[in-house]
UniProtKB/TrEMBL annotation:
It comes from the Bacteria. SUPFAM superfamilies: PLP-dependent transferases. It is an enzyme of class 2 (transferase). This is Cysteine desulfurase. NCBIfam families: sufS.
């Protein structure tokens, strides 16, 4: 069923060399690689039917509009979204979160509280800080433990009738922790608070069902799941999207414009001002087709094998510490070696053709929590192999010898 040789053959970049060594790409949590099938869709768009959408009566414009709207339907089906106009195309997760944070200023007042988890990416912290600054609401943090899990007992204590919004990622990009989002959503709803789940890091590993989750907002970036950069979605419940004011003014998002008054277009166009990333949207649909053909069940079990294997091998290295959970998480390993700066390890690994991320992974509060400058993060995708993990382990051993 899971033919790794065939899968790897779909990703042209995996054939290249870096610094004279075969590329070992373990920076999948930052961005995933793109299969030929998705690249072909982008090329086909520009070669054969590049035109602006929703405007022209001409054939090319119609073809482009049809393909773009078909992609919206694929996204709708994938995340089990009830209505296609609940899928708002954005430039990615950051853009989607800012759209909601900006709009929520209309519903938040001084004395209200906004809860955010300690495990967040900066893109799910800063927009809420800006919102609180603007409105006088208070930002409260759901704390984490050294095990890299949220302290849920404290979360439940923090909830009150002052809580308007709760923000949390589905999967932490820095540690791989899978957060108990169903529990968070249900408890927040009991006090009348809305919930935004940042699904950027979950989407490549877990197929979320937004109706079953009963989540108010869910965000995804295509480039983390075999699609292109610069495109993603905001899912929002219809009621919320109707209530939220538009984020940006411009073409496509209006019904009528006079200098006295403008009325806004219906969903989803109200939030889609200007010419979107048309090729990107269509390619996002193709990326979902690709991943679904491989199968999310097969992806999860294969990646879990890689994770177990890598965890075991890495922990055999003297002085190596893994941060956050060791199992029951997405295929992300954040580690350090005692006495060595993560950046130095990353630099040596790069010389060996191995791409990892070093630093705070846009989640500085987590690094502050552990009182470290950062970590080395190796994140695995379904196109990686155990042989590549062996190369990583040998590389880390070599770095340790050279640096200690
Ligand atoms: C990557 C990531 C983001 C940011 O996504 P962009 O595509 O850069 O907007 C936000 N949250 C998490 C958990 C991520 O992994």
């Amino acid at each position: 069923m899971f033919d790794i040789a065939k899968i790897r053959n779909d990703f042209p970049i995996l054939k290249r060399e870096v610094n004279g060594k075969p590329l070992v790409y373990f920076d999948n949590a930052a961005t995933s690689q793109t299969p030929q099938q998705v690249i072909d869709v982008i090329v086909d768009y520009y070669q054969n039917y590049n035109a602006n959408i929703h405007r022209g009566v001409h054939s090319l414009s119609q073809e482009a509009t049809d393909a773009y709207e078909q992609a919206r339907q694929k996204i709708q089906e994938h995340f089990n979204i009830a209505k296609s106009h609940e899928v708002i195309f954005t430039s990615g997760t950051t853009d989607a979160i800012n759209l909601v944070a900006n709009g929520f200023a209309a519903f938040i007042k001084q004395g209200d509280e906004v809860l955010v988890s300690a495990l967040e990416h900066h893109s799910n912290i800063v927009p809420w800080q800006m919102l609180c600054e603007k409105t006088g609401a208070q930002l409260k943090v759901i704390p984490m433990g050294t095990d890299g899990q949220l302290k849920m007992d404290i979360f439940h204590e923090l909830l009150s009738d002052k809580t308007r919004l709760v923000f949390c990622n589905h999967v932490s990009n820095a540690l791989g922790t899978i957060n108990p989002i169903k529990e968070i959503i249900d408890a927040a709803h009991k006090v009348g608070a809305a919930v935004l789940i940042d699904g950027a890091q979950a989407a490549p590993h877990i197929k979320a069902d937004v109706q079953e989750l009963d989540v108010d907002f869910y965000t995804v970036s295509a480039h983390k799941m075999c699609g292109p950069t610069g495109v993603g979605i905001l899912y929002g419940k219809e009621d919320w999207l109707n209530k939220l004011p538009p984020y940006q003014g411009g073409g496509e998002m209006i019904a009528e414009v006079t200098f006295e008054e403008t009325t806004y277009a219906d969903l989803p166009h109200k939030f889609e001002a200007g010419t979107p990333n048309i090729a990107g949207g269509i390619a996002f649909g193709a990326a979902l087709d690709y991943m679904n053909a491989v199968g999310f069940g097969a992806i999860a079990s294969y990646e879990n094998d890689l994770l177990e294997y890598a965890t075991k091998k890495l922990l055999e290295i003297d002085g190596l510490k893994i941060y956050g959970p060791l199992e029951g998480k997405a295929s992300v390993i954040s580690f350090n070696i005692q006495g060595i700066h993560p950046y130095d390890i990353g630099t040596i690994l790069d010389k060996l053709g191995i791409a990892v991320r070093t630093g705070h992974h846009c989640a500085q509060p987590i690094m502050d929590f552990y009182q470290i400058p950062g970590t080395v993060r190796a994140s695995f995708s379904f196109y990686n192999t155990k042989e590549e993990i062996d190369v990583l382990v040998e590389g880390v051993k070599k770095a340790r010898m050279m640096l200690q």
